[in-house]
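Q: Two folds, back to back.
A: First:
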Amino acid sequence: MKLYVCWGTFPTPRPGGHPCANAYHALKDAGHDPEVIKSYGFAPLGAALNATGGRRRVHELTGSRWVPALELDDGTVVADSREIVGWAGANPA
């Protein structure tokens, strides 16, 4: 299981928390131990400024450069933090 995130999974003062951290903590709380892949960049800036391997892989998987994205061992992809949080709650380890 691979979790593609932007810069990390640390807390931020952002209301509601940071989407990447929310996804990560939901997976951990459900007993999963995802491989975290930092995918530096910022999706709205296009391909040239999102050239990290993580962003390229997320684009291959989802057609978008937005993270977080979860790639399961069976190849299933769950994109968007809310979807990942929901998946984690429904699929404890």
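A: Second:
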Amino acid sequence: MSGHSKWATTKHKKAAIDAKRGKMFAKLIKNIEVAARNGGGDPAGNPTLYDAIQKAKKTSVPNDNIDRAVKRGSGADGSGADYQSITYEGYGPNGVAVLVECLTDNRNRAASEVRTAMTRNGAAMADPGSVAYLFNRKGVVIVPKTDGATDEDEVLLAVLDAGAEEVNDLGDSFEVVSEATDLIPVRTALQNASIDYDSADLTFLPSVSVPLDAEAARKVFKLIDALEDSDEVQNVYANFDGRVG
């Protein structure tokens, strides 16, 4: 029985990982579709689409899926959903501020799923504007540390004149932070310096952070997991010590 039990546990864990991976793929594909619809299907003339495709490729999304998403978004095949971008605000456990970015073709469904995830996990929806002021819109590029070939000084030197504000050491990668309007110049500066990057995204970084003990942190992570489990939700941001997004 122990052998069977171990196999069953492994199978269950793999199913959970595959489900998470499937959800991640779906969200990356949705980003590509929306970027193509808003700025056209040519990555060379649409930086947002270029970065969405690069991020999908880094996450091993199949090229066929990417190509189909571009065609749907640009209208090349006459299909594709009309996704709307909606941001919901709320307060989580211990008064942590939460921003939830959704891409949805059904506003009522998105609002219902976000509200349900919040109320079931000790959080509450907040009025528009009551939480957003605690965050700043920033550009963030993640640069992997590749076998010691890339160091912080090298990254800093490459991006300083492009508008980067800071370079943070995250352990296995560097985080390059800039104003939102400088994201493309910073990403381009890294490319020109032949420095590989994992992702280049517009994100929300908190201007004020709430310290949490272990129990409160566990509750906040549970809330974020519940929100991210929704197909309607693209990104979740919270202003506690230690960034999640």
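Q: And?
A: The longest strand covers residues 135-144.
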